[in-house]
Amino acid sequence: MAPERFRRFKDISVSERILNTVFLLTIGLGYLAALANLYYTHQGLDGKAGLSIEDVVISYHGSTTQTRLGTAIKGIMKPNLRYASDGQVIEEWIRAGAEEPEYTDKIAPILNRDCVICHTPSINPTLPDLTNYKGVAEVAHGGGATIPTLVRVSHIHLFGIAFILFFIGKIFLLCDINMYLKRIAVVIPFAAMLLDVVSWFITKSTPSFAYVVVISGTLMGISMGMQIVISIYQMWFYSRKSEVGC
Ligand code: HEC
């Protein structure tokens, strides 16, 4: 194996280094923005400020204690109930899983009497539709991600991030480090991303997998960040003569 066959940072022009550097810095910034976005979309779902594992569980699995309907009948919509006891009937129904047969028996009569005067699409198209089970179920289940949503987010995520990781990895390959380490290092972010996406789907049915979502997401961030930092460092501040390796 002739070491000269493999390009290293010392073999590329300053212009290429500049291009690599602005690319890596932009991706790094984009990643920080993605983290901030993640924080704002998931934080506080459990009713407490800040991001917690419970927020992740609610995002993917959903919650039977925090639902829009449950919150509304305990709060702003409470005065619309003719009998306070009906509020408890609705709350119990939500806690029991908000199933359709009980909806038809117990819940629909209450909503038809007290709520549909406003919550009908033809009257207020922006309000939750409380005239049928489908509309009610949407606010009676605690916001867990639906399969179509997860499929949509995962395909965007996989395509988009695979591209980013590929280009970061291509640059990182020009580093001068142990070749076994390098071979493993280019795989880790891809493996972590796949595990992350798979664990979203598992968390939908098994809440404890939220930990895997967090750990794999963190691992992807750290491994990607290290490739960026090591590449930028070696590109500009490192000049040891290349050793045999690939
Ligand atoms: C007088 C009209 C009116 C009646 C009657 C009414 N609502 Fe509402 N409802 C509203 C309006 C207006 C909003 C939007 C409030 C807002 O976004 O601040 C709303 C919002 C809601 C929401 C969504 C809250 C959220 O998470 O954004 C739910 C759920 C809800 N109502 C349930 C009910 C239930 C259950 C009843 C019957 C007990 C009911 N509403 C009766 C007008 C009504």
Structural commentary:
Helix content is 65%, strand content 0%. The C terminus is likely disordered. By secondary structure, it is mainly alpha-helical. The chain is elongated. Keywords: Membrane, Transmembrane, Transmembrane helix.
Set out the fold topology.
Blueprint lengths: L13 H29 L10 H8 L7 H7 L9 H12 L4 H15 L18 H8 L6 H26 L6 H27 L4 H28 L9
This protein binds heme C (HEC).
Heme C binds next to helix 3.
Helix content: 55-70%
Number of domains: 2
Order of helices and strands: HHHHHHHHH
C-alpha end-to-end distance: 9 Å
Number-wise, the strands total 0
Given helix and strand content, the structural type is mainly alpha
pLDDT averaged residue by residue: 89
What profile does the largest beta sheet have? none
The molecules bound to the chains, other than polymers, are: heme C
- Beta-strand level of the residues, as a percent range? under 5%
The helix tally amounts to 9
pLDDT < 50 runs, ≥5 residues:
242-246
What key phrases describe this protein's structure?
transmembrane; mainly alpha; Elongation factor-1 alpha; transmembrane helix; 246 residues; binds heme C; 2 domains; membrane
